[in-house]
């Protein structure tokens, strides 16, 4: 395996991981920002106010995005196994 193929494989792997984790990270960021703005406006500094809605939103997003994440990571593993079967690695 030449270096160009190796770098392309690493790039595909990083893109698959970023795509699979993006929905959960974006929702966690959005909910965290909304809670931070709410706390700044109302001056309520309750610790459970930050964790409970964020965890609930993450679980809901994870349940909804799981098929997309599975398809993304399955596509990557299929490419890796095809590469191994063809003797590319």
From TrEMBL:
Gene name of this polypeptide: fliQ
NCBIfam families tied to this protein: fliQ
Function description: Role in flagellar biosynthesis.
Family listed: Belongs to the FliQ/MopD/SpaQ family.
Protein name according to UniProt: Flagellar biosynthetic protein FliQ
Compartmental location: Cell membrane; Bacterial flagellum basal body
Membrane-topology annotation of the record: Multi-pass membrane protein
Superkingdom per UniProt: Bacteria
Coiled coil regions, renumbered to chain: none
Species, as recorded: Sulfitobacter brevis
Keywords: Bacterial flagellum, Cell membrane, Cell projection, Cilium, Flagellum, Membrane, Transmembrane, Transmembrane helix
Major localization listed first in the record, in broad terms: membrane
